Amino acid sequence: MFPLPVGDIVQTLQSDRERKFTTFLRLIFGAGMAETLQGSKTFTLFAPTERAFSTMSATDVAKLVEDKRAAREMVLRHLLAGTLYTAGMRYYQIRNSMLDEKILTFSKQGGKVKVNNVPISTQNIPSTNGVIHVIESLL
Question: Which PROSITE patterns match (predicted)?
Answer without folding.
Answer: FAS1
